[in-house]
Amino acid sequence: MSTISQTIINWYEQNKRGLPWRESRNPYIIWISEIILQQTRVNQGISYYYRFIEKFPDIYSLASATTDEVLKMWQGLGYYSRARNLHFTAQQIVKKYNGKFPDEYDELISLKGVGEYTAAAIASMAFNKPEPVLDGNVFRVLSRLYGISESTQKSSGKKIFMQKARELIEPKSPGLFNQAIMEFGALHCTPKNPGCSNCDLQFYCYAFQNNLVNELPVKKQKIKQRNRFLHYLYIQYNNNTYIEQRKQNDIWKLLYQFPLIETDKLYNIDEVISNSKWRQLFNGTKTIIKSISEEKIHLLTHQKLFARFYHIEIEQPNHFLIENYQQIPNKELDKLSVPKLIENYLTEINN
Length: 351
Known about the structure:
Elements: H1 3-15, H2 27-37, H3 42-55, H4 59-64, H5 67-74, H6 80-97, H7 105-108, H8 116-127, H9 136-146, H10 155-168, H11 174-187, H12 206-209, E1 226-236, E2 240-245, E3 256-257, E4 260-263, H13 269-273, H14 276-282, E5 287-292, E6 296-299, E7 303-314, H15 319-324, E8 326-329, H16 340-350
Parallel strand pairs: 1-7
Antiparallel strand pairs: 1-4, 2-3, 2-8, 5-7, 6-7
């Protein structure tokens, strides 16, 4: 074992957080925890992890669940395609592998939704295979240690990082090393204000020795966001409301929402009422607009959503509303998987 590897492992043994999945060699537990942690910070992800594992304690319970049940447990994490992939892959493992995870990296990475990082995490932590993980924390540690300025977004850069990671990984305990270097990056070699002054790797660290800690890794280009303008209609009729399931290949696929009018800018109420879809929804029926929410901004990785909610009472639904939307009791809404944006609005209006 190299001095650097041993130093990182020693630091980890003294400073690691007590996380519920950390001591497990169960590939299912490792898989679920790693996918959740791709979505959120550890301190926020723990509650989602407990909730998900309580509902689906093993691969069979996840495989036999409905898509709606899986999405409901994932609600609030975002990137719902990953929840759908979890469900699909659970069914695939039950059907193709008799419920047992494959133990080779090449087979793991062939599973839907399992990328290089997740395959390496499962292979090393569950099956003791010397497959190094590369996540943001590891990239940062390696970049500073070895003075790597190449982009992590390019294949040429990834090859350099992977080579260094393979040199460092401890073949006898690869899972331990992978967890150690990720934790070291998360808690010690942090993006801002890293603990350089009391770091046992000072002597080996290119960035520290050359006063480049704040310059490495090279900053990623900012993602350009697309603006979208959403007008949700929370329609009330006899203590019922109307919903639809998003089917298109877009954000929040298979989640439920209220009737939606999407525009090229944030319309005022007069412009919304004059919209053709509004006329279709309410033609021939008396409507009362009970309230209009303030503009709500919801940030996604590639999109910035500007939304308003219109709380509307109607005297009688017309044929368009009946034929195109599902009517459900208000009290059943909390059983559906909905985007966080809608969940927040319902919490706000019901309190």
